[in-house]
């Protein structure tokens, strides 16, 4: 008999940079394939998996805004970048043998489905991986905020934030050797100490709606599955 997972439904936030691998830009086929393999393990263990993917590997709205581009136009470009990443993930997840659906917060319905909450939940119940694209659909937001919002909307049991380090540290572990990792924090500690794991909007949404958040290293194979099985991996943020 297979072990029973600790969570019925999770939402995993992948930044655009998580798809780049060693590259400087764009999408690494190897990385996307590996991620799809880890997602398959979860689905095979009967965990319902929703994804929110960022776009920073392709475009960030703020990038050209500093050089005179209209911020709203830049953010719309950023949202379209997330659709590109979502399509790459959909393809990889289906190659891994699962069913997947991209649902976009802005209408691009010759390319993917529109985001409709009840339909998203139905897909999840049928074991399909749902990939939420185009963030919240609004400029001046981030895909982290979109991840918090969607996690709450679909009644996820846990939001997972994939990062390059294995949790939240007291300082940047890449530049500060004295940095230590927290195993548990409250939302208010994250905000008050400006720990910068996600923007404040995203944290506050989780806090005000009691959505627990676990921050972990996406580059450690198996950690995702450990978390799904209830493992104390990375940093847990709750009340
Ligand atoms: N974006 C937006 N509204 C949203 C989500 C994203 O306008 O709700 C735009 C914004 O320009 C952002 C870009 O899309 O810079 C890519 O998203 P993000 O920076 O969150 O991606 P990540 O850092 O996760 O790769």
UniProtKB/TrEMBL annotation:
<dbReference type="GO" id="GO:0006225">
    <property type="term" value="P:UDP biosynthetic process"/>
</dbReference>
<dbReference type="InterPro" id="IPR001048">
    <property type="entry name" value="Asp/Glu/Uridylate_kinase"/>
</dbReference>
<dbReference type="GO" id="GO:0005524">
    <property type="term" value="F:ATP binding"/>
</dbReference>
<feature type="binding site">
    <location>
        <position position="56"/>
    </location>
    <ligand>
        <name>ATP</name>
    </ligand>
</feature>
<keyword id="KW-0547">Nucleotide-binding</keyword>
<keyword id="KW-0963">Cytoplasm</keyword>
<dbReference type="GO" id="GO:0005829">
    <property type="term" value="C:cytosol"/>
</dbReference>
<dbReference type="InterPro" id="IPR036393">
    <property type="entry name" value="AceGlu_kinase-like_sf"/>
</dbReference>
<protein>
    <recommendedName>
        <fullName>Uridylate kinase</fullName>
        <ecNumber>2.7.4.22</ecNumber>
    </recommendedName>
</protein>
<feature type="binding site">
    <location>
        <position position="55"/>
    </location>
    <ligand>
        <name>UMP</name>
    </ligand>
</feature>
<feature type="binding site">
    <location>
        <begin position="136"/>
        <end position="143"/>
    </location>
    <ligand>
        <name>UMP</name>
    </ligand>
</feature>
<keyword id="KW-0665">Pyrimidine biosynthesis</keyword>
<dbReference type="InterPro" id="IPR011817">
    <property type="entry name" value="Uridylate_kinase"/>
</dbReference>
<keyword id="KW-0418">Kinase</keyword>
<keyword id="KW-0808">Transferase</keyword>
<comment type="pathway">
    <text>Pyrimidine metabolism; CTP biosynthesis via de novo pathway; UDP from UMP (UMPK route): step 1/1.</text>
</comment>
<comment type="subunit">
    <text>Homohexamer.</text>
</comment>
<dbReference type="GO" id="GO:0033862">
    <property type="term" value="F:UMP kinase activity"/>
</dbReference>
<feature type="binding site">
    <location>
        <position position="172"/>
    </location>
    <ligand>
        <name>ATP</name>
    </ligand>
</feature>
<feature type="domain" description="Aspartate/glutamate/uridylate kinase">
    <location>
        <begin position="9"/>
        <end position="217"/>
    </location>
</feature>
<dbReference type="InterPro" id="IPR015963">
    <property type="entry name" value="Uridylate_kinase_bac"/>
</dbReference>
<feature type="binding site">
    <location>
        <begin position="13"/>
        <end position="16"/>
    </location>
    <ligand>
        <name>ATP</name>
    </ligand>
</feature>
<dbReference type="GO" id="GO:0044210">
    <property type="term" value="P:'de novo' CTP biosynthetic process"/>
</dbReference>
<dbReference type="Pfam" id="PF00696">
    <property type="entry name" value="AA_kinase"/>
</dbReference>
<keyword id="KW-0067">ATP-binding</keyword>
<comment type="function">
    <text>Catalyzes the reversible phosphorylation of UMP to UDP.</text>
</comment>
<feature type="binding site">
    <location>
        <position position="75"/>
    </location>
    <ligand>
        <name>UMP</name>
    </ligand>
</feature>
<feature type="binding site">
    <location>
        <position position="60"/>
    </location>
    <ligand>
        <name>ATP</name>
    </ligand>
</feature>
<comment type="similarity">
    <text>Belongs to the UMP kinase family.</text>
</comment>
<feature type="binding site">
    <location>
        <position position="169"/>
    </location>
    <ligand>
        <name>ATP</name>
    </ligand>
</feature>
<feature type="binding site">
    <location>
        <position position="163"/>
    </location>
    <ligand>
        <name>ATP</name>
    </ligand>
</feature>
């Amino acid at each position: 008999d297979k072990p029973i997972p600790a969570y019925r439904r999770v939402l995993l936030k992948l930044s655009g940079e998580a798809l780049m691998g060693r590259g400087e830009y764009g999408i690494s086929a190897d990385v996307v394939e590996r991620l799809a393999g880890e997602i398959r393990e979860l689905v095979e263990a009967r965990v319902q998996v929703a994804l929110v993917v960022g776009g920073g590997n392709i475009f960030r709205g703020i990038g050209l805004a500093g050089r005179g581009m209209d911020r709203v136009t830049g953010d719309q470009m950023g949202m379209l970048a997330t659709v590109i990443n979502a399509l790459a993930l959909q393809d990889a997840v289906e190659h891994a043998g699962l069913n997947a659906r991209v649902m976009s917060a802005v209408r691009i319905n010759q390319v993917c489905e529109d985001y409709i909450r009840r339909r998203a939940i139905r897909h999840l119940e049928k074991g399909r991986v749902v990939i939420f694209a185009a963030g919240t659909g609004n400029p001046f937001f981030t895909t982290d905020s979109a991840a918090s919002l969607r996690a709450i909307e679909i009644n996820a049991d846990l939001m997972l934030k994939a990062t390059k380090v294995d949790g939240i540290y007291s300082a940047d572990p890449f530049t500060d050797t004295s940095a230590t990792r927290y195993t548990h924090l409250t939302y208010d500690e994250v905000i008050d100490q400006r720990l910068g794991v996600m923007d404040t909007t995203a944290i506050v949404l989780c806090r005000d709606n009691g959505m627990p958040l676990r921050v972990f290293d996406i580059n450690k194979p198996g950690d995702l599955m450990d978390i799904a099985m209830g493992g104390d991996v990375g940093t847990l943020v709750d009340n």
